[in-house]
Write a sequence for this structure.
């Protein structure tokens, strides 16, 4: 795969079926500009087709910032039309994260503000460094979250708490983030990436078709009524039950060995 200017793709863990994307604009606190969004789109589109990928980790260079949202220096002086065009690119990038077929884990290594917090919310799991802070401060500059914040946050934590975070626009400590259920765990800045990669490797041991089916069942089912949701689950269940990997799973269990998943 190619190399990019604003993101880094790390395949060091490919033997464990784990890939890691790092946002790589540390001098700008990893603020999201148009180029980064376009490179994320290109990278995620290619990764969707990788047969040796089961879990994707999303983090950032340095230990100051995960992503502080849109690069306001780039947005300075934009016309409404230019702003809309850029936001369309951002929406496409975030949609690819949310709809990535396999688990995506955010390792929040510093500030995750505005679009940065929305990027973390777009992932399936979130782990945060002790010193890091999250927040959706859009209300303080006259706008609102525009890439999922008002919808993803109340689907992750209690609605009243989500509204408080949105209305106040203040920073959320790692302790508060964990307490509210916003993140799955908190680690020191030294432990964060190793711990997240251990979790990713543990998940990646499992059948890729099952991982895809679980993600699709949960994400799609949450948007509908319980009867429809159960039908979605059943459809995904039979997709797995009728697969070669299901046969391999039963066989490997009885032969007391690790399964050799084929993803089919």
């Amino acid at each position: 795969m190619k190399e990019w200017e604003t993101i880094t793709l790390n395949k060091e863990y490919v033997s464990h079926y784990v890939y890691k994307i790092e946002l790589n604009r540390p001098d700008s606190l990893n603020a999201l500009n148009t180029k980064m969004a376009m490179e994320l789109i290109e990278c995620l589109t290619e990764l969707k087709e990788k047969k040796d990928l089961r879990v994707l980790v999303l983090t950032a260079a340095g230990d100051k910032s995960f992503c502080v949202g849109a690069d306001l220096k780039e947005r300075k002086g934009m016309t409404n039309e230019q702003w809309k065009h850029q936001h369309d690119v951002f929406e496409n990038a975030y949609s690819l994260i949310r709809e990535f077929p396999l688990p995506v884990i955010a390792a929040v290594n510093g500030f995750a503000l505005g679009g940065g917090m929305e990027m973390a919310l777009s992932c399936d799991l979130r782990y945060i460094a002790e010193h890091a802070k999250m927040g959706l401060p859009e209300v303080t500059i006259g706008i609102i979250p525009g890439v999922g914040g008002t919808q993803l946050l109340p689907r992750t934590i209690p609605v009243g708490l989500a509204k408080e975070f949105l209305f106040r626009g203040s920073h959320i400590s790692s302790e508060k983030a964990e307490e509210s259920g916003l993140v799955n765990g908190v680690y020191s800045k030294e432990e964060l990436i190793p711990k997240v990669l251990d979790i990713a490797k543990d998940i990646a041991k499992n059948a890729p078709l099952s991982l895809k089916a679980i993600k699709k069942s949960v994400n799609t089912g949450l948007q509908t009524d319980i009867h429809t949701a159960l039908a979605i689950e059943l459809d995904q269940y039979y997709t797995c039950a009728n697969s070669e990997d299901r046969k391999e799973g039963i066989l490997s269990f009885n032969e007391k060995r690790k399964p050799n998943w084929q993803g089919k």
In short: The CA atoms of residues 130 and 162 lie 21 Å apart. The mean pLDDT is 94. The chain has two domains: 7-204, 208-254.
